[in-house]
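A note from the maintainers: we've had questions about how concatenated examples are separated. There is no special marker in the raw files; a new sequence line simply starts the next protein. For clarity in this README we add a label.
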Amino acid sequence: MPTTASAASAFADVTASDSALRRFLHGLPGVDAVGLEARAASLGTRSIKTTAKAYAIDLAISMIDLTTLEGADTPGKVRALAAKAVNPDPTDRTTPKTAAVCVYPDMVATAKAAVAGSGVKVASVATAFPAGRAALPVKLADTADAIAAGADEIDMVIDRGAFLAGRYLEVFEQIAAIKAECGDRARLKVIFETGELSTYDNIRRVSWLGMMAGADFIKTSTGKVAVNATPANTLLMLEAVRDFRAQTGVQIGVKPAGGIRNTKEAIKFLVLVNETVGEDWLDNHWFRFGASSLLNDLLMQRQKLATGRYSGPDYVTVD
């Protein structure tokens, strides 16, 4: 499969100047907001049978980036979260591991040691998370520090102010620079903070901008604003990665993050994936949930399917 680097080179003419990039992004088809929201709502009503639900729960668990991004994070909290990622339900060893643990750069080494040998990845937010308001050298240093500490994945955040002001080439060049810093050492997830982008047209434009700049994943949100991942904005991003692969042959991952708190909501997102981009994305290499509390509800629902009894919140660890 072609790489994100080859995709970036395919758009060299489009990204040669700010005016060329603007023409391309504003030339993308406008989003039918009513149609988008109606389709997202319709797919969310699909009935899931018991066997399929059990499969979906295990799949969702395996797709979680178990996240703690608080100023009060301590090494002990990160080690406890990492232990939960590796072994989410100590009473049932058949429970899948989560995809990754996501932490601040200064906690990467602690998380890396805690998940060693498990196959669980360590993701680190970087580039002046969550605002993205810093000079490029600072963002590059932030990224380099996280990778040097052992991060397998970098979750960078764009400068929304620059994007909303129409400085598209500046945003593109920053993403490309962070991608170059990651090289083949870490996969790059690009966070758009869709709740601050005002329109669906902007979400479509920034999705293409991020993919053309070399993102391995496009991600909805930081989880730090009022509106985070929604079925509609995730559907729009799924359509973007589908169309991007059709045009370039390059497959890009999608990560909705923030606000997905229970099993019912998570399964709705999996239906969106299956119906929009198909089985190729139903794998944690290509789809993730950025979440913390979601895992607990998935575990309780999994226990209910196995035992016929619903366990209360006391039966799972509090993160």
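[label: protein 2]
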Amino acid sequence: MAHEVLTMGRISVDVYPDDIGVPLEDVAGFTKYLGGSPSNVAVAAARHGRRSGVITRTGQDPFGEYLHRELRKFGVDDRFVTSVPHLQTPVTFCAIMPPDAFPLYFYGRFPTAPDLQIDAGSLDLDAVRDAGIFWSTVTGLCQEPSRSAHLAAHRVRPRQELPAGRFTVLDLDYRPMFWGGEAEAAAEVARILPYVNVAIGNETECAVAVGAGTPDEQADRLLAAGVSIAVVKLGADGVLAKTAAERVVSAPVRVKTVNGLGAGDAFGGAFCHGLLSGWPLAAVLDYANAAGAIVASRLSCADAMPTPDEVAALLAGQGRTVPEPMESAP
């Protein structure tokens, strides 16, 4: 198996201010980082020792070259990252206003972006089929040809045919600026959910996917749609995960927040690591929760992804169980 974790979708250059708590118009200096949720998840998984790769596209420009270099630096396979000559690599600016204000400003994504030009004909479907975990996001469904490419990728991984220990994960990552409305997004999610055995989202994202309700109701609707593991992020109240036989809540891991934007991606990469390690669901959830908290306490996203030792130290420091070292992936 070439990839333990293979992600698909958005990539960008994140440009973050060096000045924390300062409005963008007053910031004196910035630093660039690799960004884009699925790409960050691949980086996070690699930080945990997993063989990871990403399927995406950049512009044919210096920023595109920079992203290739960063992926390789982090140990992420970039063979499926191709360029689109007539489009520019997107850049995302963020203001850092802790504890809870991190507005994003997207440049080079409208009316389209290179990673939304992933087409089904260019996919290595064998690589998708053989991955231990295939991870995609709802954002990749927002326009063609990316929408059809994602559907083609999911079709080669029917969830009922996945061997034990392999997973297809949909990050419910709903960003309204990329859609005509929630109804459009919900319709596309409904087309993909039949191929997915793990769904992850916060309460707002779950509401787009399966309707408003309590976190338990949303998780139950995701399970009714056929997923095996439904994860609902509860913000300050932690994370809920449910299966047909189990309900687990991981309490929040308290840290001083610097930048909350990368926490979900750190959670995702660590969650993949835990699943592939065969840990109990409660251990997977606590480990992923701690990884997300560490990144929330740091400025950047990809560069801030924690190592297993850092996650274990935080868990131990909070009196939580530290999972056993990782097992070999199937």
